[in-house]
Amino acid sequence: MTQPSHKALVPFVSVDNMMRLVHHIGVEQVLTDLAAYVEEDFLRWELFDKTPRVASHSDVGVIELMPTSDGEAYGFKYVNGHPKNTSEGLQTVTAFGLLADVYTGYPVLLTEMTMLTALRTAATSAMVAKHLAPKGADTMAMIGNGAQSEFQTLAMKAILGLKTVRLYDVDAAATRKCAENLKNSGLNVVTCGSPEEAIQGAQILTTCTADKQCATILSDNMVGAGVHINAIGGDCPGKTELAKGILERSTVFVEFPPQTRIEGEIQQMDPDFAVTEMWEVISGTAKGRTDARQITLFDSVGFAIEDFSALRYIRDKVADTAFSEDLDMLADPDDPRDLFGMLQRAKA
Asked: Is 1 part of any domain?
């Protein structure tokens, strides 16, 4: 970890600089890079502090803190989830994050994470699909065409070689928006009038809807054999997207079971419902897809280690560039014991 400078200035990546950085590198390259960073940290899974996110729920949404550390660096993300915000012209999800040096406790990066969370979520989905999706999968149904949909689609294109995406949303305007954003992506973009139409011919089924309720986006009879389900919309207690029967027929993979059993699709199941932790598949200690007719299901709720990976990536990419600005966040008296003297001198 880079030691803080004498001036103790902290690099800050604004939304504007994050967007400039992504365009400088290229969206699909960033997604590919982030997937590699996430996979690298999944291989180090046992080194990390792990705890379910600390959530403060209200009638209109949730505010969460997601902390972790690998012993050398410490990271956290602040994130909200407010589905009603869209109707008020606001983002459903906003976030920022911080990375710190464990040795000194000094922060070494502060960054926006609204854009970065969308990128890391999509990168994680595609990284997992690389391990679990049917061989040669090239068509995805994207059910829920909100803020995450384009990122998910481009990550699958960059990492799996996706060729076709079939879009559906209850809000036709959201589907039009997504289709327009993807029109120059090199993908075959198909707009659909129902979930049933969207999943026709798709080997990967991604669900990403925003309503904070138990819903049935995919019913049991809609899902046939040999598909990979990327369920990323269920991410808090009382919010699910899949019929229970689908879970009963699937091999379910999760990030961190104590969190997923509270927030994920498996909150519908008994506490001892069998799941496989994704880091075990990546490390080779557990099996992923074992049969062409198997239904694999990634019950993704987002976990702090993925944010840590994203923070590491941004720290590495903005070092010695113009894509960050220095913030004077930390008091730095000449004598560490004389903080009051520093205050007095400022008056003069």
From this structure: no
